[in-house]
Amino acid sequence: MEITIDISGVVLQTERLLLRPFQDSDLEDFFAYASVPGVGEMAGWPHHRTLEDSRAVLARFKAEKDVFAIVHRQAGKVIGSLGFHNSWAAHEPEFRGLRIKDLGFVLAKDYWGQGLMPEAARAVIDYCFGELELDALTCGHFVHNIRSQRVINKLGFQYVKTLRLYAKALGKTFDTKCYILFRDSKNAQRGLTE
């Protein structure tokens, strides 16, 4: 079941991060990481070539109200995004009727390998299952994107299948591994780790 999520007014905090809606003042930080070749391409979009590219996407984030800016608290700047999309699972018979969304994420290359994306995603997962009472979340990555695969595995998502998906912004089709995490399995994991 497709649902709408509105994160305006939502702020989530972790030890090192703040997740909040994007603001106009984030433009320079956004462009700084979105313009690095290879960052956006791993998520299905071409890196931004101009400040105007970033301004247009930022306006969409603000209008659609479904993407968190990831702010590094110590650095005091936006270093990535984590947003909600319609899920591939909403069209699968076995998942029909579930309140479900797909998570998509991007992190500035300078911050890769520090455990920041799992930290951000755990806060969003807790928000989705606790506050929004979603039944499940899905996630995916191009088969060659091993970094995203590691994040997804750390978060406890279970592999479901590989699909051939067309990335319109890149004009290419990619083999994409698809995963799911159910609210009940998240609660079960929490019980094992606490």
Summarize the structure.
By secondary structure, this protein is α+β, with helices and mostly antiparallel strands. The chain has helices at residues 27-34, 51-64, 116-130, 146-154, 183-193; strands spanning 12-13, 17-21, 67-72, 77-85, 100-107, 136-142, 158-167, 172-182. A hairpin with a 3-residue loop joins β1 and β2 (17-21).
Write a structural description.
The protein has about 190 residues and is α+β, with helices and mostly antiparallel strands. The chain has a single domain (about 10-194), classed as Gcn5-related N-acetyltransferase (GNAT) (Aminopeptidase), CATH 3.40.630.30. Helix content is about 30%, strand content about 30%. It is built from 5 helices and 8 strands; from the N terminus they run ββααβββαβαββα. The protein has helices at about 25-35, 50-65, 115-130, 145-155, 185-194; strands at about 10-15, 15-20, 65-70, 75-85, 100-105, 135-140, 160-165, 170-180. The radius of gyration is 16 Å and the shape is globular. The model is unreliable at about 185-194 (pLDDT under 50).
Based on the model shown, name its key terms.
single chain; alpha+beta; 194 residues; 8 strands; Aminopeptidase; eight-stranded mixed beta sheet; 29% helix
What's the CATH H-level homologous superfamily? Gcn5-related N-acetyltransferase (GNAT)
Q: What structural category characterises the helix and strand content?
A: alpha+beta
Number of strands: 8
Number of domains: 1
H/E topology pattern: EEHHEEEHEHEEH
Overall average residue pLDDT: 93
Q: What is the share of helical residues?
A: 25-40%
CATH architecture: 3-Layer(aba) Sandwich
Sheet with the most strands, sense and barrel status: 8 strands, mixed
Radius of gyration: 16 Å
Count of alpha/pi helices: 5
Shape: globular
Model regions low in confidence, pLDDT < 50 over at least 5 residues: 187-194
Side by side, the strands of the main sheet go: 1-2-3-4-5-6-8-7
CATH fold title: Aminopeptidase
